[in-house]
Amino acid sequence: MRRRTNLAWLLVLPVVLVVAFTAVIPLMTVVNYSVQDIFDPSSRLFVGFDWYRAALRDPRLHDALARQLLFTGLVIGIELPLGIAIARFLPRDGRAASAWLVLLAVPLLVPWNVVGTMWQIFARPDIGLAGWLVNAAGFDYNYTADPVDAWITLLLLDVWHWTPLVVLLTYAGLKAIPPAFYQAAAIDGASGMQVFRHVELPHLTGVLTIAVLLRIMDSLMIYTEPFVLTGGGPGNTTTFLSQYLTQMAVGQFDLGPAAAFSVLYFLVILAICWVFYTGVTARAARDERADGPEGDA
C-alpha cells in the first residue's frame, strides 16, 4: 500500500504566509489601534471600546452608511438586469462574439482614478461632451452643484465601469448550458421569457451569486471614483464610508477612532455578504430538495 503524507500542504504555505502578511497582520494592527488613544508613535493610552461607542453614535457615520447602502442597492439593481439582458443578446459563437466580448471588457481594464478623471471631463457642462449635450437639450445639468446630478453621474460612471463584469460572468454561464435544454424548450414551445425563467436562470444562480457578491463588496468600498469626480460633494451628498474614513485617518489623524471605524466598516461588509450568500445558498438548497425524488412524487 502506498503511504499517505501531508507534504503536499507545504505547497500552499507560501500563499498562507502572503495572506497572513497582507491581510491578517494589518487587520490585527487595526484592531490593536482601535482600543487605544494614540498621541504619538511612543505614547498611547488604552481606552477599551470607547472609540467603538463613539463611532456608533456618530451621525456622520449614519448618514454615510445610508448613502453607501443606497448607492449599493441602486448599482446592483441597475447593473444586474442590464448585464443579464446584454449577455442574452450577444452572439454565442463566431468572430462577432469575440469582438463584442473584447469591447465590453475594455472598461474593466481602466484604472479607478482614470475612470473618475474621464467622467469628470466628459460630464463637465462647459467642456464635456455629455454635459454640453444635456444642457443643450434644455436640462440644467451641473454635477458639481446639484446633488441629484452628482448622483446620476456617479451611477452612470459605475454602470459603465462594472456592468461588463456582470455581462462576462453571465455570458460564461449561458455558454455552459447544454444545448439539449434549449432543444427541449423549443419542442415544448416555450417562449423566450419561459426559457429564461426555467432554463437559463437556474443555471445562472452560481455566476450571478459571484457577480452580486463582487459588486456588493466593491460598491461598499468605493472611494476613488467619487473622490475624483465630486470630491464627496456637493456638500457631503456623495461622501461615502471610505471617504469619511480617509478624512478621519489622514485628514484629522485620529488613528484610534479611524481604526475602530475600520473594524466596524469591515464587519458591515462581511455581514451583508454573509446574509446574501446564506440566503442564496439556502434557497438553492430548498429548490434542490423540492426538485428531488420526493418533490417529483
Task: Describe the structure using short key phrases.
MetI-like fold, single chain, 2 strands, globular, 297 residues, 3% strand, two-stranded antiparallel ribbon, mainly alpha
Describe the structure in your own words.
The chain is mostly helical and 297 residues long. It has one domain: MetI-like (MetI-like fold, Orthogonal Bundle), CATH 1.10.3720.10. It contains 14 helices and two strands. It has helices at 13-33, 50-56, 59-89, 95-109, 112-122, 129-136, 147-175, 179-187, 192-203, 205-220, 224-229, 241-251, 255-290, 293-296; strands at residues 36-40, 43-46. The chain has a two-stranded antiparallel sheet with strand order 1-2. A hairpin with a 2-residue loop joins β1 (36-40) and β2 (43-46). α7 runs antiparallel to α10. The chain is globular and about 75 Å long. The two termini are 46 Å apart. The mean pLDDT is 85.
Quick structural gist:
With 297 residues, this protein is mainly α. It is built from 14 helices and 2 strands; from the N terminus they run αββααααααααααααα.
CA-atom Rg in angstroms = 24 Å
Q: What is the strand tally? A: 2
Shape designation: globular
Oligomer: single chain
Q: Would you list the SSEs in sequence order as H and E?
A: HEEHHHHHHHHHHHHH
First-residue to last-residue Cα separation = 46 Å
Low-confidence stretches: none
> Strand order of the main beta sheet, please?
1-2
- As for the CATH topology, it is MetI-like fold
Strand content: under 5%
Overall pLDDT: 85
- Helical residue percent? over 70%
